[in-house]
Design the sequence.
């Protein structure tokens, strides 16, 4: 879980093709100066017309020494294995329909952190089954700090509510 006393790093996961709408650049900017021991998994391909945007992301990562693994497009088993070890699933999108990857993460009991702009607030109930943040650094860091300071029991409760959200709405995923 997020018990930094017993972990040497936190694992964050993002799933989706790398493009401006997914807002990964801003997400990595939010992580500047957080001084958290994190590893980030990004699962999704770089779209052909988005190489310039990807290079912009790489530059910010190099400057800030953030450890990110770009896995490219992967199958469901790979995604499932990454979600099973993730501490936080992030969806920092500028706009999004119902996110299947977020629903999959919830079904596995991941704590999901989504941008208000991603339009997932019909599913994510802030503090109950995940967290919603405004797309600004202050809001992001406030939510991240709140999550990191949750005790194990509180984390477990949020993970349980995430799974129940999927079960209670009869949403099933073949992961």
Sequence:
């Amino acid at each position: 879980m997020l018990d930094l006393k017993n972990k040497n790093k936190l694992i964050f996961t993002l799933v989706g093709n790398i493009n401006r709408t997914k807002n990964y650049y801003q997400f990595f900017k939010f992580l500047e100066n957080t001084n958290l021991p994190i590893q980030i998994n990004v699962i999704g391909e770089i779209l052909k017309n988005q190489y310039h945007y990807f290079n912009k992301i790489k530059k910010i990562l190099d400057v800030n020494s953030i450890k990110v693994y770009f896995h490219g497009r992967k199958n469901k088993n790979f995604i499932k294995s990454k979600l099973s070890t993730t501490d936080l699933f992030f969806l920092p999108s500028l706009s999004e329909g119902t996110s299947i990857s977020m629903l999959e993460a919830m079904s596995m009991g991941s704590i999901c952190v989504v941008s208000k702009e991603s339009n997932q607030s019909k599913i994510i109930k802030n503090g109950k089954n995940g967290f919603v943040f405004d797309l600004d650094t202050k809001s992001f860091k406030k939510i991240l700090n709140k999550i990191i300071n949750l005790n194990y029991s509180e984390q477990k409760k949020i993970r349980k509510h995430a799974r129940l959200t999927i079960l209670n709405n009869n949403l099933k995923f073949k992961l």
Q: What stands out?
A: DSSP finds six helices and six strands in the chain. The longest helix spans residues 152-168.
